[in-house]
Amino acid sequence: MNSATSARACILGCIGPRLDSEERELFERAQPFGLILFARNIETPEQVRALVREFRAIVGRPDAPVLIDQEGGRVQRLKPPHWPDFPPAQTFGSIYARDRTEGIAAARLGARLIAAELAALGINVDCLPVADLLHPDAHGIIGDRAYGSDPASVAELARAAAEGLLAGGVLPVVKHIPGHGRARADSHEELPIVATPLAELDRTDFEPFRRLADLPIAMTAHVVYADIDPGRPATTSSKVIREVIRERLGFRGLLISDDLSMKALQGTLGARAEAALSADCDIALHCNGSLDEAREVAAAAPRLAGEGTERAKAALERLKRPVEALNVAEARDRFSAMITA
Q: What is the CATH number that goes with domain 3-340?
């Protein structure tokens, strides 16, 4: 059964490395589209595999999305000693600046290696690549997570990473559409407001997302673009989603909100989920594992229907087994040589 045919329009987290009885009951009843994992859910490879298997058994969908943020650098949930470290996106931008071909190849191979790690655990969605631009005067929440400041090179490197994930049987999620790079605040803590005129945003920050509009999934930015909708961040702005993300940028894939529990948003978790879905996000994302909050989000999220179902199906249809087996040891050696050259 395709996960899009019976799921509710939400992705939820869990609180620990194993599901408790209340979480099992919630997932069975609510049928969330997917599960997202964080460091608090990670102990050993076998434990992660068991958690993933249990979630899919509970919802009764063997292809149910299981997501993780495995970017490299500061944002990677799988860490040594069981999993290798990966460099931040900025490393690939530096290689690209010296040798465009090598930079693209390194970004693709790094993502292919990440996909191999994830696929071995049953994780089939990675919240990568970050297509936000680096702006020196912005808050450091993006920082070295960005490939660079040039829209064209960022788009090339982000596409290479997405291709590496897809080649390894993992769906990429491009973030944070239509661009978090100019934010002068961390949306985990407060609501960023970007006053840059639309024409300038369209020429710069929005451009990588336009070039990546064919990717299967994107995640919104909890950022207010004052020249477009001064009253709402992108996640809850139908104007930003419809006129910018869907029309101006041409993104037709599955649109997931950023984490609704972040402090950039206001109101109850149910109200936040309702606002995001009413604004035309396809999926409401709740990450922190709070059971009461997750229940609110699930109660506010309807079953996937209409265009949301079709976009979810289209995304899942791009999940394929790797075409070629990867010699991981050889690929790691080659990758290490690339990033240390």
A: 3.20.20.300
Q: Which residues pair with 285 in a beta bridge?
A: 11
β-partners of residue 11 are: 34, 285
Per-domain residue ranges of the chain: 3-340
Quickly state the pLDDT bin for 1 (edges 50, 70, 90).
very low
33-to-9, 256, 286, 298 alpha-carbon distances in Å: 6, 11, 12, 10
pLDDT averaged over the chain? 96
Choice between 138 and 25, residue whose per-residue pLDDT is larger: 25
Query: To 5 degrees, how large is the angle CA 41–CA 46–CA 50?
Result: 65
> What is the reported pTM?
0.96
**Rounded to whole angstroms, how far apart are CA atoms 316 and 124?**
10
d(CA 231, CA 314): 32
Cα–Cα distance, 74 to 5 (Å, whole number): 35
- Which sequence positions are flagged as catalytic? 188, 258
